[in-house]
Structures are given as C-alpha cells and as structure tokens.
Amino acid sequence: MSGICGIINFDGRPAERELLEKMADAADYRGKDGIRYRIHKGLGFAHLALFTTPESRRENQPLVHRQHGLLLVADARIDDRQALIKKIRGKNVHVNDRPTDAALILASYMAWGVACPEQLLGDFAFVLWDENLNQAFAARDRGGCRSLYYRRTSSTIRFATQASQLIIDPKYKQVLNRDLVARDLLLPGFSGQHQSYYLGIEKLGPAENFQMTAAKFSRKKYWALNAEKRIVYKDPVEYGDHFRALFNQCVADRLRCEGKTGLFLSGGLDSSAVAAMAGYEMAENTSTVTDNIKCVNWTYGKNHVANEVVYGQSVASRWNLEFEEMSMLEFPPLYDYPWRKPHVDEPYNSPISSFFNATLDKFTMINNPPKVWMTGFYGDLLVGGQNPFYYSDLLAKRKLIEVTRQLSAHKKAYKLDWQQALLIGYFFPLVIRPLKQKIHHFRKGKRVYARDWIMQELIDETKVYEWAMDTPAPEWVNTRARHDDIQDPALAFRFRMLNCNISERLRVWFERTFAKFHAESWSPWDDSRLPEFILSIPQNQIAKGLDHKLILRNSMKDLLPQALLERRELRTGPGVYLEEAFRSRVKPAVRNLTADMASERLKIINSGILKQHIDRYFAGESSYDKILWLSLSLESWLQERNF
Asked: Measured in whole angstroms, how far is the alpha carbon of residue 434 from the centre of its chain?
C-alpha cells in the first residue's frame, strides 16, 4: 500500500515516463517508503509504498511474473490469508508461506483468472497486465475501501488511486461534471459510483472489475450482498456467538500492522467494541503483530450529557490500551479555512474533518506514529438503527401486553412521555411517514426537492429530478413496501441502506484523509463478511423497536463494561456542538467563503438566497442542514479548482 498509477498504450506507443512520474508526484505523500516504476514498451506502472504489514517490507512492486507474462501493481491488504493460500495451492499454483499481498493477488489470478477477485477478502485496488492475452484487468474491493480512477480512449487507458493523478496530464482539459454536482446537492452520496467530478474521468465501483483490450472494454460486478441467504439457529445465543467469531476475525486481520495502531474512540458501542475485541485478541493471540492500540477519545465537553469519555476510559483501562482525549470543541468546522485546502478529487467533506485533520497532525509529530487507524464508523449503519416493524408484528399477533411493556421501557430510557413514545416508536415510522410519502408522490410527482438556493438552470440542464425519481433512496421510499422479493420490511429497509452509495463515499473520504498523513484506514466494520451475516439472520436479533444493536450487546457481554452495555439513552453526538460552532466561531469563515462565490459564476448556487438561509441559521431561526454544509464544501472546492 498505499497508492498506484499507470499508463497502458494498446497501439504500441512507448509509455511516457515523464507523465508517469508526474502522476506519481501528484500523490507523493502516499509513497513515504518510496516510489518505484516499471516501464516496458507501451506499459508504465508505478507503486507508491507505505510499509504497514510485515510482508510489505519485502514487497517489490510493480510485480513481474516473466514466465506467465504478468505485470501487477496493487494497493492492497489481503485478509484471511491462510485460507486463501490453501485454496491457491489446491489449484496447483505455487505460493510461499508468507507471501506479500501483491504476490497473493498475482497467484490468485494464476489460479482463477479474471474470477480471482471473488476469492479475495480485504481492502484492495489493483491493475494487472496479461501479455498473453494483451489485456488489462483491474478490480476493486467489495466495500470500496480503496479507489481506482481511470481515463480511457480507444487506444489507451490511464489509471490511478486518485483523480488528481489523472488531471495532471497536459492533454486532459479540466471540465466540471455538472451532472454529479446537481445529484449530490439533491441526494448527497447516492450517485457517483462510476462518475468523478471531472468529465472524462471515471472510477471503478465497489466490487467491480474491468477488462480492456485494444478492441473492447467491459466492466462488471463480481460480488453483491445476498438478501436471500438465511441462517437459522434454534438457540438465539448462537447468533451472537457467530457474530462474535466473525467480528473477532475482522479485527484480528487488521491487527497485522507493524508498530502502533490508532483507534478513534467515540465512547459509543461501535468503536468500543473494536477496542475491546482488539484488546482481547492481543491478550489471547501471541501472533498479533501490532504493538498496542492508541485510543483517541473524541469528547464534546465534560457536562453530564456529553459523558462518552467515561465509557472510553473504562474500555481502554480494562484492556490496558493507551488513551488520550481530544476535544472536538477545539476544532470546529472550517476552523482551518482557508489554509487547509480541500482534496483535489472531490468536494465531498465531513463537518468533522477539521477534528480528524488536527488529531492526525498532532500524531504525525510524535515518534512512531500509528500508520493504521481504525474507527467505529459504519457500525451504526450495519447493526444500528431502529426496527419499528417489530411493534407492528407484535400488534398483528395481538401481543398488546408486550407492545406496552416495550414502549414503556423505551419511554423511560429516552425520557419521553407516552404521546412521544407512540409517535416516535410507532405512528411516525409506520403510519405518518408512509402517508406523507404517498401524498408527495401523487401531488407533485417528485419525492425530493432542491433547496431554493440551487439554481433552476442547473436543475433543468441536468434533469436531476428525473434521475431522483428512478433512484431507490431509502429516505424517500415507502418503508413498508417490499424490495424485490424481500418480504420482511425491516430486512428490505436494511438491505437498501447497505446497498446505497453513501457508505462508500464515507470510506473513500476516510482513506484520503488518513493518506495525507502517511497513514491508512482499516476499519473492521468495513469488512464484507459482517453485512453478509447481518442480512442473513432474523432482523429482531438486531433491533426490537427502539432497542437496537442487540447482537453487538449480546456478543460482547464479557468484553465490554456492563454500564456501556446497559446504556440506552441517546448519545450526544457531534450535532449539537456543530450547530453551536457554526453560530459562533465558524461565522467569520463562512462569511469569507461566501463573499464572492465561484458557484454563482458557474450557475450552480444563488448566493443571495444562500446567504439569507445562512443569516437565519446564525440567528437560530433554522436548524443544521446537511445540504447547506455540502454547498459550502462545494464552494470551497470550486474556489481552489478554478473551473
């Protein structure tokens, strides 16, 4: 790991070394441990190395297998290695006992050909040239944890980890992809699986591969979540045991890191579970590579509401993990504007990016900083959320006493009155919300509406409403409706959430953020084995009404503090502090950013209307709006890109 780029000319023209070096230099921070090139005739491959695993120090990419005419470059961490080695040897392909990740990919190709990505677990993006077939073959991991952009013509293809490595080509004319801009301002994160913000530059989607010869280019999906698979146990305890074994393996695979591993610990169940399982694995398994876990607990102050630090401390103390507090209050959104530039690839950014940047800044200054970081993100999407359908199922079975008992428990836990409990737990998700959706659908013919500061010219030009009508966005789909052949509405809803593109966009954001600081993002919650299992079990093992994350609580009983397992009240989260920061410390930066707007010159945003909304927000007359934040992120990016 941690970056690749290359040129393949199918017409026999020599690969341009000068251009290849410029492509590598555009992301040189990914190659802290060296940049290596291999140029031969029409091929030019480059690998930007960051040594993170014991095997990576022996890696010599780009990797050549002269006997079979293969050339490979990969940004990869391959998991479940021993099982893969056994299967490769079963195909009569030689592989040594401690192969590098690139060598495992090459051997897998020799064993299964273009079907090899189906056998690979982990985070990877690779490109392989097969001289015998005169064919380029590329693949990206199942969750999209590693990126692969490309630009192709009839006679050439250029590829890279980042789009910024492709726009460096003097023959490329930088043109804004207005279609993707419009889609992201309407349904953030539901588009862009193959598009980039630069016209002519595409990207490989998660769990996809492509093949290209001089005559043909084809792209296909090699893996998808299966909502039809079912795992049924007689004893409900077995679901927790199965999940724990999987989660243990996912964490263990990410402890194969030299030096220290970092963990962003929020104090919630998801990141605390990672910390506890990592501590358990290091105590039980002497073959674990990492030295220790550095837990960075993000806090929002120390009042009685924002007390996550107490839980973070208890988990770290129990497993003898290093622990340090970092206050999010010190690093509000845009506090580092304008000296911290947005990433060249795209404007998508998180409002808590300043906190991550400041934290990573700090740790790059110490001796032996973590090269690998884990988080608890994606846990909420995977095992979190509520299952309001649980109540309707109980009512359908006339279990009124059980419904009353459940609602009473949640009323107490969330400090609600009976009216609030009924509205939040039953009537809103199962009655009011579907009814509102039907009314909007039949009256307007649209399920979503652009904010009034988005220019009508952009909407008309991109036909974004027509696209939105055909997009299965979970927030605007009748939650009681079936999805294909999925009968269980809770399963259908979770399946839609796990299949939308938002999680991939967040993974890529993390990967880019950490790469800037010579580090990598290896989150156990990103592992494809977990959603495969979660979708195959009864949904009441995950959530019953508002009582969620049941399988995580049940499987971690002996590893997490009892107080954390029993905690049911709503966590503080960063939302309230983001609102407070926007209305105080961030105000000057927002005023500066919107003084002379590039997005208005490009006929994207009406600055006058946007400023009116900002004024109302600053005055406390409106609440936090993610589209408002994304509009500000877009403006910051456009000012840097000079479109």
From this structure: 29
